[in-house]
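tl;dr need the bound structure. longer version: we got a ligand (fructose -6-phosphate) that a collaborator sent over and nobodys looked at where it sits. i said id run it. heres the input, straight from their email, havent touched it
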Amino acid sequence: MAEIVVVESKRAAGELVAASVRRLIEAKADTVLGLATGSTPLPIYAALAESFRSNPIDVSRLRGFALDEYVGLPPGHPESYRAVIDRDVVAALGLTPNNIHVPNGDLATLEGAGAAYERAIEAAGGIDLQILGIGRTGHLGFNEPGSSFASRTRVKTLAPKSRADNARFFPTPDDVPRHCITQGLGTIRRARHLVLLAFGADKAAAIAAAVEGPVTASQPGSAIQLHEHVTVVLDEAAAAQLANLDYYRYIWANKPAWQGI
Ligand code: F6R
């Protein structure tokens, strides 16, 4: 079962996950992180930046793989995930640019981009800790409902609901790309530790389905139930539809500190 942690704020969520990431880097300087974009992971990146600032460690060998990228945005588009990762992760944390990878969404060279990304993850020794958000459709990465649990990095079509949700980042809703290239659920499931975060009432139904619903391709988030090490970090609103919430609080409250997440 996934470990469910309910925290009082996004900041607390960010600090909890950042502390775990920091411990990983201290133990293994070339740790491989799986990086989500969107709003949800920002408190983690902010807490990591603060941690590295107040107590510097060598992050020059840290490696990272983003979950996904839009297809067909012009190079350098400020809302391409390459640009977001460069800004919010590489620059903000002082990472080595060549160590941080984003799937290639360039239309001209799209063929083979998924397989190349899979090879790069494998060559890096796999992902140690994968940061995840979840969409209102239940998507992980951009694996919309129906995605195979065995899928690998490939091109997908964004669900209308996901395009509408991401319209806030673009001048008009029509500017949101219709296609993306995303790590598959099979790729995500190979990461050694999944850390899924969600904040706000809009995410409560997707979280309940992912954690407690049937395991089904119709709810991509439910793929986490097939993984042996998952931490789900939620605020109260995102946790509100969990049937066994009291039990999860009890488990967390009684967890030995040495176990970490
Ligand atoms: C982002 C990603 C998506 C988002 C999800 C939630 O790389 O793969 O699955 O995590 O759409 O987005 P936010 O965090 O903006 O609510």
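gonna send this back to them w/ a short note. The chain has a mean pLDDT of 97.
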